[in-house]
Design goal:
The protein has 292 residues and is of the alpha/beta class. 45% of the residues lie in helices and 18% in strands. α2 packs parallel to α3. The C terminus is likely disordered.
């Protein structure tokens, strides 16, 4: 009986040695890059671009850049645009990324949102998405005729003749209109210059497209405003390739919690809302609104 158990133990021991040897051989022939594949981080850019957006999206971008396991970033965009300075700040952060960034445009990537996307290494858009809307609009509200009918008088005392430029309580002079047009033209010039640089497009070519028109993703692709047509998975695959990831990448989806300001702003946002929001802070009391 003891001899039988000794034989069983010996057979078991030999089997264990053969199993360990087989596993060692298998591991030595594996491409470990498929096991230790890098990570693609998906960062959402949703709704109007505000300073809150810059803070939250910027922090996520910084975290992805600092994380050594992250090899590439996908910016998942569904935004009509936003403030001129917040959009520009976010664009600079994307432009300065040391890791590949792929911008994916879902339903909308217009105006300031396209400004941000233009700084990415590659733009992937759904064929039916809304892109473009490159241009500047100033909206001036004027109440003076209504006030006249209602018998309401408004007296504005200023320290300078242009302090109340664009006031809703009086008609605008020709010189004031020319000055506001000059401001709009400068914002527009800065905007298209940055986009042309980001996209490697001749300024003259971009200027023909930057007339405020909106484009479907398929049209933007034909015009060179986006690089590929596809969905989020396509953007992730492209990001993984740019990041040098072999095999199936790990994908981490970041989330941004909306602030009260975001929820309030959502009700006032429309396509191409725009990039001139910085001047809106100066003009709200005067009834002016600038869109791009």
């Amino acid at each position: 009986m003891q001899t039988k158990w000794k034989i069983l133990v010996l057979v078991g021991f030999i089997f264990l040695i053969l199993l360990v040897a087989a596993m060692a051989l298998l591991i030595s022939n594996l491409d470990l890059s498929t096991i230790t594949a890098g990570e693609v981080v998906v960062i959402p850019l949703k709704g109007e671009i505000t300073w809150s957006t810059v803070s939250s999206v910027g922090n996520m971008l910084d975290g992805a850049l600092e994380d050594e396991s992250v090899k590439a970033i996908v910016l998942d965009i569904d935004s009509p645009g936003g403030g001129v300075i917040p959009s520009k700040e976010l664009m600079y952060k994307v432009r300065g990324s040391e890791k590949p960034v792929v911008a994916r445009i879902g339903e909308s990537g217009a105006s300031g949102a396209y400004y941000v996307a233009s700084a990415a290494d590659t733009i992937v858009a759904d064929e039916d998405s809304i892109t473009g809307s490159i241009g500047v609009t100033m909206i001036l509200f004027q109440y003076y005729e209504l006030f006249d009918k209602l018998g309401i008088g408004v007296k504005v005392i200023t320290s300078g003749e242009r302090k109340d430029i664009g006031s809703p309580y009086r008609n605008m002079t020709e010189e004031e209109e020319e000055r506001l047009q000059e401001i709009i033209d400068k914002i527009y010039s800065h905007f298209i210059s940055d986009v042309a640089e980001n996209r490697g497009m001749p300024l003259s070519e971009l200027r023909e497209l930057a007339n405020g028109d909106i484009y479907l993703g398929s049209e933007a692709f034909e015009n060179g405003l986006v690089d590929e047509l596809g969905n989020l998975n396509d953007a992730i695959d492209i990001a993984a390739e740019l990041g040098g990831i072999e095999g199936e990448p790990r994908v981490r989806y970041m989330q941004r919690k909306p602030t009260f300001y975001d929820m309030f702003a959502e009700g006032t946002t429309n396509i191409g809302y725009g990039i001139g929001k910085a001047l809106l802070e100066l003009s709200e009391k005067e009834g002016k609104e600038i869109d791009l």
